[in-house]
Amino acid sequence: MIDTKIINAGLVTLGLNPSDLGKDLVRYLEQLAKWNRAFNLTAIREPSMMVTHHILDSLSVLPYVKADKMLDFGSGAGLPGIPLAMAKPDLAMVLLDSNSKKTRFLQQMVIELPLPNCRVVHARVENYDEVFEQIVCRAFSSLADIAAKAAHLLTADGEILAMKAQLNDDELKQDLGAFEIATVQKLDVPYLNADRHLVTLKKR
User: Fold this and answer.
1) Which pTM does this prediction carry?
2) Angle at 178 between CA 91 and CA 97, to 5 degrees
3) What is the mean pLDDT of the segment spanning 18-25?
């Protein structure tokens, strides 16, 4: 059972209007839970944990979304891309993933929810060719790996928003090639008692 009160309270805490957005997010979570039983889209299966660990976690990065078009690479089940696209209908969001089962789910969500501002691409990030001012990724490998794989997809003055859980000094000291760490900020996720960080990468 999805706790709509927690979703709505979390949205208010994040400064968002829960009226229509809350309902849309519930529909998305219902479909995610349903598809997850067959396609193993996410390791989290408890609906209450999906609210905090997926939805509210994804939306915590919304204040840092400035571009008109954004790429969510390694999108998986659509996180953070789908919640961000729901909360910001004027944002053109590209959901990129190399797993065909996951992109099938994403395409179905774009049709069912519906999400006219979302586009699904089934490809490896290394083989994709489109340029963005902002790229977001969540729980996708190391900062060095993110920088190496996404470099060709970013404008010269663009930025990568890397959502990370715990950070350690070794990762922050990795060789990022053409990139440097611009900022490291702690994200406050409502009802989630765990560390969450946003690392912003920019080209040197």
Assistant:
1) 0.95
2) 45
3) 94
Measured between alpha carbons, how far is 184 from 73 in angstroms, rounded to an integer? 20
10-23 burial code (b ≥16 CB/10 A, e <16):
bbeebebebeebbe
**Architecture in CATH of 63-203:** 3-Layer(aba) Sandwich (3.40)
The phi, psi pair for 42, rounded to 5°, reads -150, 145
Q: Tell how far CA 69 is from the center of its chain.
A: 14
H/E stretch holding 121 reads strand 118-122
Q: Please tell me the distance from the alpha carbon of residue 186 to that of residue 197, in angstroms, as a whole number.
A: 4
- Cis ω on the peptide bond leading into residue 80 (within 30° of 0)? yes
First-to-last CA distance in the chain? Answer: 47
Q: Where are the domains of the chain?
A: 63-203
What pLDDT, in 10s, does the model give residues 60-110?
999 999 999 999 999 999 999 999 999 999 999 999 999 999 999 999 999
Q: pLDDT digits over 143-186, tens only?
A: 999 999 999 999 999 999 999 988 888 888 889 999 999 999 99
